[in-house]
């Protein structure tokens, strides 16, 4: 397996620079032997997927140096941009040396099912893969209402095993790792999981008409509703519910040959 001792890890997230989950992840990654640098959005950027949006002023995108709790000596930056923008910028001349891997999280809430497409945590890891780096998205299954004291250590406990798994594969590999929010002693064995067809909750959007004299056509209000279907026991949703940390390899955008089925297309005149 590849040695982690010479590798540089960029730690980011979509919950923002002030998330304790980010700090725990950076600390655990440093303990695993990586050269760590932290760069995360200056405020919450959940649900932005692989967006490369950034707030651009006259002089560019603002970067604020930060000192993070328990991370003395680790360079850290709050960036006024989305997680994938941070990853993209890191490979385009901002960070030297460039990262070898991007570790994104620890997200407050699981990233499961096909809805991982919309996760900023996962988007950062997928963007790393597109640049030929290793990518790892780390999430904690805290349920609908996050607890006051999440078990971040439940996610960090399995990181050495997941890092070994990741680094045994080719650069460009992206893994999504979810852990139940339990005491680490209660964790069951790590399992490979398929993506569920749905997550643990479904977003329902309601259109509310504007009142008399309103300047808009109304508002769209979204809310979460529990999914009634039972997940497959081999899916990420099912395995997490059974107390297993899960790992899933993700693939990003790629062309699929054969769309024309061998039909010869001639130019139209």
Automatic annotation (TrEMBL):
> Which reaction is this enzyme known to catalyze?
a ribonucleoside 5'-phosphate + H2O = a ribonucleoside + phosphate
Q: Give any GO molecular function from the UniProt entry.
A: 5'-nucleotidase activity
Ranges where the Survival protein SurE-like phosphatase/nucleotidase domain occurs? 10-193
Its Enzyme Commission number(s) read: 3.1.3.5
InterPro entries assigned: SurE, SurE-like_Pase/nucleotidase, SurE-like_sf
At the top of the EC hierarchy, this enzyme's class is hydrolase
Keywords carried by this UniProt record: Hydrolase, Metal-binding
Instruction: Give the protein family.
Output: Belongs to the SurE nucleotidase family.
Question: What name does UniProt use for this protein?
Answer: 5'-nucleotidase
- The gene coding this protein: surE
